Amino acid sequence: MLDGRVLLLIFIALVVVFTVVRVLGYMRRSEQQWEQVDKSKLRKWEDDEDQ
Question: What is the pTM for the complete model shown?
Fold first, then answer.
């Protein structure tokens, strides 16, 4: 029974590590894409609720 729990904990740890690595990769790619954006074409956002 102990072997099953250890394998389950190892599997859960691998899934968590895999997910964190993927999220960090997506964050890095997003930052790179944001740096490539032509910011001169961006407009300031105005909320409709302020009116």
Answer: 0.67
